[in-house]
Amino acid sequence: MNAFTRVLAVGALALVASSSVAQAESMLFMDNFIGHGMGELYTGPTSGNSIAPFTTESSTNNGRVTLYGGGLLMDVNTSGSYNLNEANLVLNLEDWEGIRVTFNHRSYDDEVHGFATDESRVGGSGDQDAGQLNPFVDHSNADGVAVSVDGENFVPIWTPSAGESNSNWYNVQLNSVDAAIAQALNLAGGNGSLSTVTFRLQQYDNYTKPSDGRGWDWVTIYGTEKPSGAPGVVPEPSSFVLLGIGAMGLVGYSWRRRKTRKVA
């Protein structure tokens, strides 16, 4: 192998090796609602108690989304009428993949309402549609977490387990949220964007804490920075690999030339 071919082959192998090095996971967002948050994409207050940067919405005037001693509480002001509470967080994830979500959660004797196909469901005692994670448009009378890329088409990524009507605080870890985000992009039909990914926490029921209601705390989102030049797309065969193949071809060519000369 001559010097030029040797350098080219070694360089190609080095490029292939360096391209396979895994990126380190980063904490993109964390909020404990009491004190302050942090992270690469955190834009809320750095001290004091605040719901920001979450925005909240309730389906009735009786809905309540408020800070309390254990984080963020969702219930109603006055018992008796069913209400859907939502807290939305919008993040720019254009440069990130491998999204992972963790949070602490508890139920105050709140029955589980899964993400059913009937988004207008109202009332009923006991768990309903537990475990169901059906996509929905705009709103769904359910308990859990959902994601969207257009603020309209949502894909649920978590709902409490059946029988979890009353619980102590427990930790939830949702790995590989990328698939749900990709599904949300598909449902948006070209109108969505990774620059406006919405994470929605939601609760649905009709009584005040401690007869109903849900608590949320330490909402944390992790991600890995996308490789430069290939955001969110499975790449075609790498030019580095093609370069390596070319180098091996040059090696063979050089060897054949030397062998031919010896025969001559």
What does this entry look like structurally?
With 264 residues, the chain is an alpha+beta fold. It has three helices and 15 strands. It folds into two domains: 3-15 and 240-263; 24-225, Sandwich (Jelly Rolls). The chain has helices at residues 3-19, 178-188, 239-263; strands spanning 25-31, 37-38, 55-58, 63-68, 71-76, 83-91, 96-107, 113-115, 128-133, 136-137, 144-148, 153-158, 170-174, 197-205, 214-225. Strands 1, 2, 4, 5, 7, 13 and 15 form a seven-stranded antiparallel β-sheet that branches.
Short description:
The protein has 264 residues and is an alpha+beta fold. The chain has helices at residues 3-19, 178-188, 239-263, and strands at 25-31, 37-38, 55-58, 63-68, 71-76, 83-91, 96-107, 113-115, 128-133, 136-137, 144-148, 153-158, 170-174, 197-205, 214-225.
